[in-house]
Amino acid sequence: MQFDAEWLLLALAPVFLACIGWEVWHLARTRPGAALYSWPDTLCNAALALMHQGADKLAWLVAIPVYAWVYHHWRIVNWQPGWAAWLTLFVAQDLLYYVFHRASHRVRWLWAAHVVHHSSGRLNLSTAFRQSLMYPVAGMWVFWIPLAVLGFTPMQIVGIVLVNLAFQFFVHTQAIGKLGWLEYVINTPSMHRVHHARNERYIDRNYAGVLAIWDRLFGSYVEEDAHEPPVYGIVKPLDSYNPLKASFHEWIAMARDCARMTDSRTRLAALFAPPDWCARHDALAMQRATDSAVTENNTEGDLGSRKT
Ligand SMILES: [Zn+2]
Ligand SMILES: [Zn+2]
Predict the structure, then answer these.
(1) Distance in Å, CA 227 to ligand 1 centroid
(2) Which residues are in the Fatty acid hydroxylase domain (predicted)?
(3) How far is the CA of 305 from the centre of ligand 2 (A)?
């Protein structure tokens, strides 16, 4: 019987749950009273994982035929089975993951889905389960199309995407410190703690999937500083353990912002500019209104003083 790559994460569920059990036990001994786990938070994370699994199953129904079509019509390499093919697939997908992840923080349409992963104020292994059922709508699967152009089959693509995601489970922990030379090579718990932090100097940094090299190459790497512990969560806290609210709150906010914009340029910006664009746009409009009111008052004052 052939193993279906789509079921990889579910097949690994016992390993994930065993690691969570170890982390809870370990933290209870080493950081008693730190309350790094809470039942409502963990249950919300589990619900989000199940919702994401369901949505992903449906998404593959659409994405796999697209990958197959691109593979048959546009592929530029015919790989011989072997380590060179697997290594290329792994490195290329990891680079594409970096691009997807960085775009997910800088394009609001993608952030609307990705925010789910960041909206808990806690960080533990169960935080890895916080995934969005809206990723297929946001278009995450589109980022893997270049792999089909590179000559990889749909099942190879699905497999490597899920291997990358499975690896990332292990970096969501406060139970492991820095890992020496490995910090230069792979995404580590220390590196990913920075990614989940909302401290000014940590925000929008360390986008790595498996390899740490992309952040160092493209200037998005920041080291975890022992003098500045990460503060987890998003700038505007969600304050809810409702998985539906976690999944849709940013989509609703984005739709509202888009609707209140007055022309097509600002409407497009509300959807595709960085997530904080609307707030900066509003602040600028407020500043302009204040400036023109001050100018008007000054002009009236000048006219009044000339009349006297
Ligand atoms: Zn992120
Ligand atoms: Zn994460």
Answers:
(1) 23
(2) 86-220
(3) 63
The set of residues, in sequence order, having a beta carbon less than 8 Å from that of 45 and lying 6+ positions away, is 120, 126, 127, 129, 130
Q: What is the pLDDT confidence band of residue 289, given thresholds at 50, 70 and 90?
A: confident
> Mapping DSSP to helix (H, G, I), strand (E, B) and coil, where does residue 110 land?
helix
pTM assigned to the model: 0.92
The alpha carbon of 259 and the centre of ligand 2 are apart by a number of angstroms equal to 31
Count CB-CB contacts under 10 A for residue 226. Answer: 9
- Whole-number Å distance, alpha carbon 101 to ligand 1 midpoint, is 6
Alpha helices in 179-261 (DSSP H): 189-195, 213-217, 243-260
Q: SS3 of 130, please?
A: coil
| Type of residue found at 64 | I
- Which two structure tokens, joined as six digits, stand for 275? 């997530």
Confidence (pLDDT) at 3: 59
Assign 1 to helix, strand or coil: coil
pLDDT tens, 38-54? 999 999 999 999 999 99
Q: State in Å: Cα 75 to ligand 2 middle.
A: 32
CB 8 within 8 A of CB 159: yes
Tokens of 237: 């806290």
Ligand 1 centroid–CA 103 distance in Å is: 9
Mean residue pLDDT of the chain comes to 94
The helix/strand/coil state of 195 is helix
The Cα 252–Cα 149 span in angstroms is: 35
Angstrom distance (rounded) from CA 84 to CA 134 = 34
